[in-house]
Amino acid sequence: MRMQFPFAPAVPALILAAMTLSLPTHGEETHRELGAHVHGHGTLNMAVEEKRVSMELEVPGMDIVGFEHAASTEEQKAAVEKAKAQLAKPLALFALPPQAGCAVAEASVAVEAEQHDDDHDAGDKEDAKAEHDHEEAAGHNQFHATYALDCTRPAELTAITFDYFKLFAGAHELTVNVVTAKGQSKYEVSRDKPMLDLDGIM
Question: What is this structure's pTM?
Answer without folding.
Answer: 0.74
